[in-house]
Amino acid sequence: MDNVYRTIYKYGEDEIVIKKSRFIGYAKPIESEQEALDFIEKIKSKHRDATHNVYAYVYGEDSNIQRYSDDGEPSGTAGIPALEVIKKEDLRNVVVVVTRYFGGIKLGTGGLIRAYTKGAKIGLESGIIIEKILHYKLKIRIDYTLYGIIENHLMTKGYLIDDIVYDDGVNIFVYVKYSEMDFFKKTIIDLTSDNVFIEQIGEEYIPMKNGKRLK
Questions:
Q1: Is the same domain home to 95 and 158?
Q2: Residue-level pLDDT at 211
Q3: Residue 33: other Cβ atoms inside 10 A
Q4: Domain range holding 117?
Q5: Which of 40, 82, 195, 208 has fewest C-beta within 10 Å?
Q6: In whole angstroms, how far apart are CA 169 and each of 154, 197, 203?
C-alpha cells in the first residue's frame, strides 16, 4: 500500500475558447471505475448537443486501470492527450471529460492535441490537485498531570488532533502520518516516561495541500 498518492480534492470545471471552439474541462475524484463511467455519462447527457465529449480516467492502487476515448476526434488527438495530463501530474483515482463545441475553424492535429491537453489541465486544476497521505488514527491515554506536556508537543509539531475526551484520564485522538509512526510513539513514550497507553484505532487517507489538511 502506498502511503501517499496524488489526486484532486473535488469536482472541478473550467472552460477556454480556442479559435472559436469552446472547450469545457470537467474533473472529478473517483472511488470506483463505475463512478468514472457514471460521471462520463452525466456530462454526455448534459452536453448532448456538443460536437465531442472526450474522456480519460485513471483508477486503482497501482493506477492499473487507464481508459480514454477520442469520441470521434482523429485518433490520438484527444483522449490520449487528456490521459497524458493525468499521468504527467501522477494523479490517481480521477476522471476528466473535455467537451467541445466546434467553432467552425479546424485546429489541425497539433492544435487538437494542445486544446484537449489544456481542457483536461484546467479541469484538473479547478478540482485542486492534492496529496492524499495515509495517517493512522491513534488514541493516547494519559494522566492529567501529563496533559500539558503532550498537548504542547502535539500543537508545536502540528499534529492533527481529532478529539479530546476527559474521564478519569485524558484521551487524545490524533492522526499521525504512516511514515512517522515509530518516531511519534517513541517520542510520546519518552515525554511521559512510558506512563501512557497508545492504541491504533484506524487509518485514513487525509487530503493535504502544501502541508496543510483540507477540510
A1: no
A2: 78
A3: 15
A4: 4-127
A5: 195
A6: 17, 11, 24
Do 86 and 156 belong to one domain? no
| Joined grid coordinates for residue 124 | 484538473
Each residue of 43-58: pLDDT tens digit? 999 999 999 999 999 9
- Both 94 and 189 in one domain: the answer is no
- Give per-residue burial for 73-101: e unless 16+ CB within 10 Å, then b: beeebbbbbbbbbbeebebbbbbbbbbbb
What is the C-alpha to C-alpha distance for residues 86 and 7, in angstroms, rounded to an integer?
9
Please tell me whether residues 86 and 148 are part of one structural domain: no
- 147-157 and 181-191 are packed helices; what angle lies between their axes, rounded to 10 degrees? 150
Same domain, 51 and 89: yes
Cβ atoms of residues 192 and 142 within 8 Å? yes
- Give CA–CA dist 50/102, Å, rounded: 8
Q: Where are the beta strands (DSSP E) in the chain?
A: 4-8, 12-18, 21-29, 52-59, 65-69, 94-101, 129-142, 160-166, 170-177, 197-209, 212-213
CA distance 12 to 174: 31
CB 154, CB 57: distance < 8 Å: no
Regarding whether 81 and 43 lie in a shared domain, the answer is: yes
What's the domain count of the chain? 2
| 12/51 same-domain check | yes
Q: Which residue reads 515509530 in cell numbers? A: 182
What would the pLDDT profile of 146-204 be if each residue is shown by its tens digit? 999 999 999 999 899 999 999 999 999 999 999 899 999 999 999 999 999 999 999 99
Residues 6+ apart with CB under 8 A from 165: 171, 173
